[in-house]
Amino acid sequence: MNAETSKDPVAAVIGGDAVLELLGLLAYAELTACLRTAVEADRAPDTGVQVALARMAVVEFGHYEQLAAQLVEMGQDPESSMRPFVAAIDAFHDRTTPRDWLEGLVKAFVGDGIARDFYREVATRLDGHARTLVEQVLADEGQDDFAVRTVRAAIEADPSVAGRLALWARRLVGEAIAQSQYVAVERDALASLIVGGQTGGGWDLAELGRMLTRLTEAHARRMQRLGLTD
Amino acid sequence: MNAETSKDPVAAVIGGDAVLELLGLLAYAELTACLRTAVEADRAPDTGVQVALARMAVVEFGHYEQLAAQLVEMGQDPESSMRPFVAAIDAFHDRTTPRDWLEGLVKAFVGDGIARDFYREVATRLDGHARTLVEQVLADEGQDDFAVRTVRAAIEADPSVAGRLALWARRLVGEAIAQSQYVAVERDALASLIVGGQTGGGWDLAELGRMLTRLTEAHARRMQRLGLTD
User: Fold this and answer.
1) Considering only CB atoms, which chain A residues are within 8 Å of B48?
2) What is the ipTM of this complex?
3) Out of A42, A52, B84, B156, which could bridge B35 as a Cys pair, Cβ 3.0 to 4.6 Å?
């Protein structure tokens, strides 16, 4: 919405800090997504599921490495850049620990999907290297087909699974929104960058609403693909 | 010792089965190494350690993918090829669950080192694609420096750590040898391939002894690098 912001010299400074924050946030999100997905892979009872989840974890780690390399190139220490987001992201994962590998698979699928939509949203607000990087991350293919096939098969084998997983997916989204809000409250520049806020702080609430609508609509389509009514 | 074996037509058949068994064994070993290392990465308290362990897990998964692809190319189903080795390898991991991330790091370092020495041993007994594959796996760089630096720092901070970790490393090797023997007893052709046995079964016990000596000597050198007397 506000791609012009970076041409304003004041906004460029704000934007610069916000971009660093965004990269730190995404780096820690990808790192923990990799680790939590790998833990679910280890717990999965079936080698095929283990391999599919491990493959997702490896892709997520690749994203982390790209984001960390970009931070280093911009003169930042990745660990320091990630630190402000550790509490919120760890809280998200601690509050959404899957009870079984099927919940783990849905979490990985839903999380990867929302992450990709989010990358697509912010890409339009970035310039230069950061934008190229985000587009590269987006170019990676997910393991969608495997998740869709496996969840649908599980529902076919036991239809009661559908209700439980639909509820689970709703909880995942709810917790993600809650933790995003904690981050947004503390990080005005970052929030402005993400939702296309006005120069000098204060985000565009209408644009935030539109973005959340787009993200939840895409999420609902993914739920339908899984055979879950959301 | 017995690189000629594959030129004997009878041995070529035996060797062919043994190579498939070897690839299945290595594939499952790499897959579980990846998953268990990733679990330790998730448990590590420090982002630097998490990233280093995750990087090792990703390398291990890459090896798994190469081995599985080779099995597919040879007309095999990777899951079926791995199945005979699940019990022994799972038993190894269940009997060597690290108590903390430092034991996890030592396990990953020691396991990776022994695996690489083992690949080097068997490479000389393989032909064609299988040999190329094993050499490719070997070409991957490990994360040795990180492990050495981190373990040495931990010992410097608390010298009592050295004795505990040395004992731990000894247990790892003991369990690995025990599980290898279970596998060898049931898989005569595979054992023959690995230790360079005579055509038609029965391994060369003297060569087995020499190989174990080489592997344990290399292990002792790695322990010294970590600052652990073994």
Assistant:
1) 79
2) 0.80
3) A42
